[in-house]
Amino acid sequence: MKKILILVSIIVVMGSALVFAAGDSETAGNPKALDYPKRAIEMVVPFGPGGSADLMGRTVAQLMGTYIDKPINVVNKAGGGSTTGMMYAFEQPADGYTVLEITPSVPIIEAQGKAPISFSEEFIPIGNFQVDIQSFAINRKNTKFSNLDEMIAYAKANPGKVTVGGTSPGGLDDYIVRGFAAEAGIELLYIPYKSAAETKSALLGGEIDIYQDKLISFLQMLQSPDVVPIVTLYNRRLSEVPEMKDVPCSMEKGINFTQGSWRGYAVKKGTPPEIVSFLEDLLRKVYESDAYRELAERDFSDIIPGYMSAADYGKLWQSELAGFKKIFK
User: pLDDT above 70 covers what percent of the chain?
Assistant: First the structure.
């Protein structure tokens, strides 16, 4: 009789455990069971409108919205090389209703000791979404030089006289200009603007000599007949991109610099793990969706496959942060 009672007890306990586990699984994958989101989610892009980070943020927000019944609103918080946006997100509750877009500018600011907080300690990853390639372009009306070789020759003869526009002063764009210049043996002058839109206007207006941007936004700039691409910071030519197939890459010119950008998402530390899991799953669904596959093929935003899980993205954070600290030290 005792053996029967013990067996029954074990079965009851196991059954309860299975029900509990099933409930957890349902909650993690079902927004109604999770009771999230109850209201609109805010996606913070720590840069101005019109750039590659902004374009990706708006694309992801729109596609995420097709899986949930609440909107995802993109909010641009430019300034401080991404610090303004990061601090805005940090000041919000850790409840999953504020998602921060992360690019290398964030660990760069931390590596330089310029950030008031440590993003790697105060935020937790959701996942990476894109890895992009950087390119430089000039105005066709530029009378100083018409291609990369001429630009390098001019820069060597006129140190600090060639101007390059970008966003995120002290952040990624600034770092890319300095890194490229160092490898090319020249000196370039970085001119920061509040947004990619202002940078593009500066090139077309003759305020700067070189416009730099990531491919997803760079290709839009090439719609102007006055914009001429001169180099891609990559290890090969982009033969699959019609506008870039004849543009030399940095490596073929003997310039060993291929820094690009990655873009992903994070939430404030302390956000409930079930919400973090839900957002990670949502991001993966968007990346794998037919809608995004079509967009990625059209705008060449996935030449380098960009998706990383939260765990792998967290490892990338730490690796990049360690590398930037070494460089800036």
Answer: 90
